[in-house]
Automatic annotation (TrEMBL):
The keyword Transcription does not apply. It comes from Mycena chlorophos (Agaric fungus). The lineage of its organism: Eukaryota, Fungi, Dikarya, Basidiomycota, Agaricomycotina. This is Major facilitator superfamily multidrug-resistance DHA1 sub-family. It is found in: Membrane. GO terms for cellular component: membrane.
Amino acid sequence: MAAVSPIEAGEAPVAVTEHTALLAGTKPSRTPLPVKQLTIIMLIQISEPLASQSIYPYINQLVGELDITGGDVKKVGYYAGMVSIRPTCLSLILNAQPPTQEALFFLTEAISALQWSRASDRVGRKPILLIGSFGTALSIFAFGLSKTFLTLVIRQVNPISDYLILSAVGSRCLCGLLNGNIGVMKSALGDMTDTTNRAEAFVFLPIVWAAGASIGPLIGGSLARPHDRFPNSEFFALKFWLHYPYFLPCLATGSFALFAWFIVLLFFKETVPWKTEKPESALSSASSTFSSVPVDRSEPQQAVGPLSLRQLMTFPVLVSVSNYVCLGFFTVTYAALIPLFCTMPITLGGLGLDPPKIGILLSIYGLATGSFNLLFFARIVRRLGEKKTFQLAMSMPAAIFVMFPVISLIARATSAGEEHRLWWGIYVLLGCVGMLGAVMDLAFGAIFMFVTACAPKSSRGTVNGLAQTTVSISRALGPALVTSLFSFSLQMELLGGYFVYLVFLLLSCGAMILAARLPEEVWDDIE
């Protein structure tokens, strides 16, 4: 029986575009998620924000007590950023310039992330995950024992120095240098899933991170300075807690990271697909990820190693990684700006909140972000698609940077104590900021799909490592830039101290333009 065309059958013709598949295929059945393996990956994932985010409620207070600011509150923003998110590179500390400590984790991670991820393509994901989890625990323990700003840096770079130098910056760098988990976790998820269930697996990454980001600040705000928080306790009256007032939250989060290390050691199964593909097939996989032209798999494939970085520099890889870099930049600047904005006195453009209140606020933000992703991410992606979901999320930073000066102006209007009712408006606006941040986090699940899809299977770790390296650089520069520009705007009284928000508003508009360069759809994996 001859085939009948849609026109002959009376059906409306299908519009054909450059993204239309040449051969129609039946929709594959959904592969069940590997629940046990996925749970272990999520355990590693949550241990990292527990440690990194727990320092936010007290980081500005800690920096103010160190030897670096000379008692000048306006200088806290310069240095708080270097420590607060993650450590990065020792050269920034040896430099007399005022980059911030949040930068430290990410610069050292940028140095090491690609190498860890490339190693995972060769030796497997499990050994790298073990090293990363141990590095997280070691660095946060060292952070809690730091007594000078310089030590906060060095502890992040050299594990030996943890026993010799007690400094805040060093501990952040050690974490970045030893932590290859982020990129390797995404590679492992790509290994253990396929196109039928990958979206459901990747959605858990930002949700679990948000859960850790919710619990972490609560731990930090509740357990910091235990001799003050629990004055009737004889245990916390010991000289140790007076000398190391911020070690208790570090002990709690570091212990959880060690627990995750043991679980990986005992129960995690290797996911690397040791059978690799021939170079021609791998290259066609990278370049045709966003193309619908089928790849001929009739020829036998030879086992080869991962592709070189030069071979991986295709348009799909570059555009996916670039958008991930922008997303990482804005999420980390947002995370760095919130506690600084809340800590600063009202007269200096902040809200003048204390660490416990900041911890509660950040925990609420984290809970809202996780809940929103869990409830709405899959629905939004099904309705809008990955690209439009990402574009929607990347429009949020612009709105966020408009909200900050509005809240500050209202707070200044209430500083005389005459308009207390306006504080309810401030809390409502802070809630709006949190919801905008929750929508922005939708972008992670979407961009992870693009990054994973553009990677040949034999080089999935390398592509994820490349993405993690570049995003780490942006995350290192972002907090340093936003917190330093915050302080600079105050000191120079640029636009009344609000110049920082104008700069980041313009940058966020550029990110929206870049998001439009993504393809309309994420295509299936090609062997």
